[in-house]
Amino acid sequence: MYYKTLLVISLVFFFNCNLAYSSDLPISKIVFTPSSEATALEYENIVKVTECFDVYTAFFEDIYFIDDKIISLHNESANNALVFLQKGFNEEIAFNILDYYTHWDEDINKLTIVPKEGIPVFTEKDIENCSFYYNDESLTLKINYFDPYGLNIDFTYYVTAYKVDDKYIINDLHWREYHSPNQIPKN
């Protein structure tokens, strides 16, 4: 139960390294379109990005226990875990998830999950609160969270995914914090 609570509280950075936004356009120059104005194809592609986060969620929810240790059904080995996470994330982000959230346990010879706060998980329920920038090769989402903790702190979460065949793979996550209400950029 403790672990599932951590998944719910997922509006905190988790990377020890810099996964700053990278694109041909500086983020400040991108003009985002509200999701309510998305074409059917654009909306379908936004949903495909939520499926990347489904991979992340499954990694931490499909679990079993050995003694008090949490083991994902998807991480019998570090290589299996990396391959699984790469269904939704590029290799660098998948590796960073493993590096931050798992530990090799010599006693049971398995990769175990270390409970910590998680990354923000973008779901279909969040689509109505996002805007996007779309081209044939990539999709960048901008999701605003207005004072989610009641501390007069707003957040903007940027997610960039690149199209690979008929799906998307997340390759950039970027989080900005605004300490004054109404400071989030409008576009």
Protein traits:
five-stranded antiparallel β-sheet; alpha+beta; globular; 9 strands; 187 residues; single chain
Describe what this molecule looks like in 3D.
By secondary structure, the chain is α+β, with helices and mostly antiparallel strands. Helix content is 26%, strand content 29%. The protein has 4 helices and 9 strands. A hairpin with a 3-residue loop joins strand 6 and strand 7 (138-145). The protein is globular, with a radius of gyration of 17 Å.
Sheet with most strands: strand arrangement:
1-6-7-8-9
> SSE string, helix = H, strand = E?
HEHEEHHEEEEEE
Largest sheet: 5 strands, antiparallel
Rg: 17 Å
Count the DSSP helices.
4
Question: Which structural class should the secondary elements be placed in?
Answer: alpha+beta
**End-to-end separation:** 39 Å
The count of strands amounts to: 9
Proportion of strand residues: 25-35%
Give the uncertain stretches in residue-range form.
1-23
Mean pLDDT: 84
- Residue share in helices? 25-40%
Gross morphology: globular
